[in-house]
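User: Study the fold:
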Amino acid sequence: MSNEKDFAEGILKTSVSYMVLSAAIGIIIGLIMLLYPGGTMVLMEAAFIIFQLLLTIFIGYYALTEAFYYFKTDRILGGALYALIGILAIIFIWLFNVSLVYFIIALFLVLTGISDIVGGMKLPRGKNFLIFLGIVNILIAVIILINPVVLPLLIAWYVLFWGISRLFLSFELKKLLK
């Protein structure tokens, strides 16, 4: 029992650390995007390449951190799956071009929204905030699909909101460790 509790606590610590890091970067990126919204495709392409680079770093960091943790705790299959999913995600990031961004972001938001809602229902703390974030994710996905022209500004506000909400959620999860 203690082994399972230590494992769960280790995953929670890793998740909180990842959440704080991604929240800080999300807030910074959101503010930069709001200050320089751009309007040309050249700027959008440059922003997309930067987004691809940052996403590659995030996914690589997260996948490796989780994979190493699973390997360290003798959960080889879980570690291998995290490493494989991380590698595949990084490959797919670089295969897509700007024209598919709208659909990819909308799909990501819907899946994240569903995951947040389901995950929020299982949390003892921070549940309402996570469910709210899930609903916001799905609503933004619908807006993107209906009116893709608003995507750059919507992404800026979403990234800022996402970063702030993840920061608050990480504080709630950190309270579970005490």
